[in-house]
Design goal:
Layout lengths: L3 H9 L3 E7 L5 E7 L6 E6 L5 E2 L6 E7 L5 E7 L6 E6 L4 E3 L9 E6 L5 E9 L4 E12 L5 E5 L7 E5 L5 E7 L6 E7 L6 E4 L6 E6 L5 E7 L2 E7 L5 E6 L4 E7 L6 E7 L2 E7 L5 E5 L5 E8 L2 E8 L2 E9 L2 E4 L15 E6 L5 E7 L7 E6 L13 H8 L2 E7 L8 H5 L1 H4 L4 H15 L8 E6 L1 H12 L7 E5 L5 H7 L5 H8 L7 H6 L12 E7 L8 H12 L5 E5 L9 H20 L3
Parallel strand pairs: 31-32, 31-33, 33-34, 34-35, 35-36
Antiparallel strand pairs: 1-2, 2-3, 3-4, 5-6, 6-7, 7-8, 9-10, 10-11, 11-12, 13-14, 14-15, 15-16, 17-18, 18-19, 19-20, 21-22, 22-23, 23-24, 25-26, 26-27, 27-28, 29-30, 30-32
Length: about 600
């Protein structure tokens, strides 16, 4: 398939798995699927049965949790502004709304009690007063009476997720510590008593945990320059069993349908799974020679996993001695001739060794598109990207840099972004990566463009306002921060602690840093081409960022284009909108990079 637009259609119609979960008893496999339909949808497959779609409508539907006894799922239906309705959907076709159709708050996680009619969730809302809050509280809702009871009321914003113990007696959840960098593990009884901190990693460290089947805690802690994995009891007594050593520890989880535990590990942007015994002994590594693999557990008597690579769709697979077998048949629908990722290494301005993924166009390239990942606490990994493959088909090389602050290279590497904060050395990493590509003959001066979403959008703004045109001739920021003060004031309140962690405080505490690191104050330096992309419903990086920067652009008479998707939020997700976006971006970069120097 050589026609770029036909290839794009085929890739956007190819379903991929965003996330998946296997029931504790191994009797239900559920997942969020994107592609093929207009918006993400939630599917499930019972052991011995067929896959069924459990969500409905053209909202953005995402798997939240599994119902007790593997009877179905909880899923969120997001209209685009992240104020999602919560539904329970069973395998027999029943669907029940468990929340307001369009809540006035942002929800964090959800779980249903195995015996009582109780729903647990986090929300930045006081149901007693009917008021929106800055912190997220942990709530219990009686599904028969509709009564809400607060179980935990943190004073600071930044409470993330919750997990119900297998017995239904306790809730495990995360709180921010006194310092913005600190994240602690707390436990509260489901009756509302005894809310207490059980794990801390010090003044600035993080410790996250999950329940074991016997209701101990399997934790992952960030202390010093490395992460450790271990066990803890409810008194807080800890026993480490594994520490980072040449690989990055990313997450811990139970493996459904088995007595085993899992640890997600990463090396060079490739994820794999370490299988632990119930007492913490590493039994085996489960990885593939290419791509990434996260083990889920035992389903229908066989090990199953979520697997993906740069040329293979994210898919649910059985692991057999003779190789992987798709549970969905997606591999048979994958277009032929896709371009694989190549490893690319370079040095930062301070000598730090850096790594990214490079995709090589066939023939002489029209230019190079640098696609910067968001987060910044995330990474560019080995996954099949319709966007990347389309740019390649349109004649561009593509480069995905994993700058300092990215995950997958160990805690020390991830924490380096905080030494200078946003707009610091991590932006120099992107520039030195482009320079290294040019020196290696893999890119040409004046023929490089930058794009990305969220923090990738911020990076695109930073590069077009700071990098010489020789390195960055065009930028297309998508939902990217322009004025960090405006962004802090208008974003979701539960996201503000992340800005404080990365920048060393709030705008009131470090105003000069927020100003210095805001691209809006440097737009007079823009000499290259600029296309701004925004979702009108975005509550994360709000449209106020675009309004503020456009006023400054117009004042300086800086030419630019604006592309707004009225029905999108933080990122462009709907299939038809993604098609339109990638086509317009490719055309924009063709024109912007054609003149060269």
């Amino acid at each position: 398939m050589t026609d770029p637009d036909r290839l794009l259609d085929a890739l956007l119609d190819l379903p991929q798995i965003l996330d998946a979960a296997l029931a504790e008893n191994g009797r239900l496999l559920a997942w969020t699927q994107v592609g093929g339909e207009a918006t993400p949808q939630v599917w499930a497959r019972p052991a011995g049965g067929r896959a069924v779609k459990l969500s409905r409508g053209e909202t953005f539907n995402f798997l939240t949790n599994l119902l007790p006894e593997a009877k179905g799922v909880l899923y969120e239906a997001d209209p685009g502004d992240e104020r999602s309705a919560l539904y329970a959907a069973t395998l027999d076709g029943e669907r029940r709304l468990l929340s307001e159709p369009h809540p006035p708050y942002y929800r964090r996680g959800a779980a249903v009690h195995p015996e009582k009619p109780w729903l647990f969730f986090g929300a930045n809302y006081d149901f007693g007063r009917g008021e929106v809050l800055e912190p997220t509280w942990i709530w219990r809702k009686d599904l028969k009476t509709g009564e809400h009871r607060v179980l935990a009321a943190p004073e600071r914003a930044g409470t993330y997720g919750l997990e119900l113990a297998p017995s239904g007696r306790r809730i495990l959840y995360e709180r921010r510590g006194a310092h913005p960098s600190a994240r602690e593990t707390w436990v509260v009884e489901t009756t509302g008593e005894n809310d207490r901190r059980v794990l801390s990693a010090g003044e600035r460290g993080k410790v996250l945990a999950t329940w074991t089947r016997d209701e101990r805690l399997l934790y992952i802690a960030e202390e010093g320059e490395a992460r450790s994995v271990g066990f803890a009891d409810l008194s807080g007594a800890r026993r480490a069993v594994l520490r980072e050593a040449g690989f990055s520890l990313e997450w811990v989880f139970r493996l459904g349908g088995s007595p085993y535990l899992g640890v997600l590990a990463v090396e060079n942007a490739r994820g794999y799974t370490l299988v632990l015994s119930p007492d913490g002994k590493v039994l085996r590594e489960v990885r593939e020679p290419s791509g990434e693999l996260r083990l889920l557990g035992v389903f229908e008597g066989e090990w199953v996993a979520l697997y993906q690579s740069s040329t293979h769709p994210a898919d649910l697979v059985r692991l057999r001695a003779e190789g992987r077998e798709s549970l969905t048949g997606l591999d048979a629908r994958t277009p032929a001739g896709l371009v694989p990722a190549e490893d690319f290494y370079w040095r930062g301005s301070d000598g730090l060794r850096l790594h990214g993924l490079y995709y090589r166009a066939k023939g002489r390239a029209k230019g190079t598109i640098v696609l910067v990942h968001g987060g910044p606490t995330a990474r560019a990994g080995h996954r099949l990207s319709p966007e990347v493959q389309y740019y390649l088909a349109r004649g561009f090389n593509v480069f995905l840099p994993n700058y300092r602050g990215s995950t997958g290279y160990g805690l020390a590497f991830q924490e380096k972004i905080k030494a200078t904060g946003w707009g610091g050395l991590e932006q120099e990493d992107i520039q030195t990566g482009i320079e290294a590509l040019i020196n290696a003959g893999l890119a040409e001066p004046y023929r490089v463009g930058v794009t990305g979403t969220s923090y990738g959008g911020y990076s695109s703004w930073w590069q077009i306002t700071h990098a010489p045109r020789r390195l960055v001739a065009a930028a297309a920021p998508i939902c990217g921060m322009t004025d960090l003060v405006v962004d802090y004031r208008t974003t979701r309140p539960d996201l503000r602690p992340y800005s404080e962690e990365m920048l060393g405080g709030s705008p009131d505490e470090v105003p000069q840093r927020y100003r210095e690191r805001s691209p809006i104050h440097y737009v007079d330096r823009i000499r290259g081409e600029l296309l701004i992309v925004q979702g009108a419903l975005d509550p994360n990086v709000t449209p106020e960022n675009v309004a503020a920067v456009r006023e400054r652009l117009l004042a300086h008479r800086i030419p630019h284009q604006l592309l707004v998707f009225e029905d999108e939020g933080h990122g462009i997700v709907k299939k038809e909108n993604r098609r339109a976006l990638y086509q317009q971006l490719a055309t924009f970069f063709e024109r912007a990079l054609s003149a060269g120097g």
